[in-house]
Design brief:
By secondary structure, this protein is mostly helical. It is built from 13 helices and no strands. Helix 4 packs across helix 5. About 45% of the residues are buried.
Length: about 260
């Protein structure tokens, strides 16, 4: 893999991880569309470490407060969030461990990815039209975090989108778009960290080269910009542009598979 390919994949990861368009779909489709050799799921997941660093830097102050409150005042409302986020990460962690082989092979069929992009766009659209979007991140409950975490586990299928599924679930539960995105980002941190640890064992010394470093740097920078953009955008806008993009991408992939 050249440094240019690595940077392109890093940008796709950084942008796709935090926008509801599925980073895993883009990482799987890029080699198919451009004729590159697929870099493997382990490299895809390791690129997530760049976005993990981005989300950790962006929410560093938030995490400091959350962890401190969770350890010192776990029974108070402010201290419960740490443990709620930990509990909400369990469904995705379990799905990742149980379905890892499917995630690396069957789920990466372009037709399956195209179907997921289009099908889940419909669900995101319905959630985005939900009339009751008044809850804030401070209203999170055990039931809500479990349902959002369950939705996050669906993102193991490329095309669903981790951000898309968690924001969708939060919107259906009545959260405002901005708060839904913030919860999505906070819930992403332990899941990305865990996935990175799981796949790190597949990365050997020979893989730690200039291309690998370039991909991580690109995903970090793109991730930071994507977080900042989406949080600002959702304060006064809806998800329709992302939905249209997902559907158009899905149609393009189906056209390439069956017609081109």
């Amino acid at each position: 893999m050249t440094e240019l390919h690595a940077v392109a994949l890093g940008i796709l990861q950084g942008v796709g991880e935090f926008l509801p368009i599925s980073s895993s779909a883009h990482l799987a489709l890029a080699p198919y569309v451009f004729g590159w050799r697929y870099q493997g799921l382990a490299y895809d997941v390791m690129l997530h470490l760049g976005t993990l660093l981005a989300i950790s830097v962006y929410f560093a102050k938030d995490w400091f407060v959350i962890i401190k409150a969770g350890l010192t005042r776990p029974k108070e409302p402010g201290g419960k969030l740490l443990w709620l986020l930990a509990a909400g990460s369990v469904p995705a962690a379990a799905a990742g461990l149980l379905l890892n082989d499917l995630a690396e092979h069957a789920f990466r069929d372009p037709r399956w990815i195209a179907f997921n992009l289009i099908f889940f766009s419909g669900l995101i659209y319905l959630a985005d039209r939900s009339p009751s979007q008044k809850k804030t991140a401070g209203d999170i409950s055990v039931k809500d975090i479990f349902l959002i975490g369950l939705a996050q586990s669906v993102a193991l299928m490329p095309g669903a989108s981790r951000a898309g599924m968690t924001i969708m679930a939060a919107l259906f539960l009545g959260y405002a778009r901005y708060d839904a995105a913030r919860l999505s980002f906070l819930l992403a941190t332990p899941v990305i960290f865990g996935a990175g640890l799981l796949e790190a064992r597949k990365i050997g010394p020979a893989d730690l080269n200039a291309a690998f470093a370039a991909g991580l740097a690109a995903s970090f920078i793109a991730g930071l910009l994507s977080i900042k953009f989406l949080l600002a955008y959702l304060k006064s806008n809806n998800l329709r542009p992302f939905i249209v993009y997902r559907v158009m991408l899905g149609i393009f992939i189906l056209w390439k598979v069956y017609i081109n």
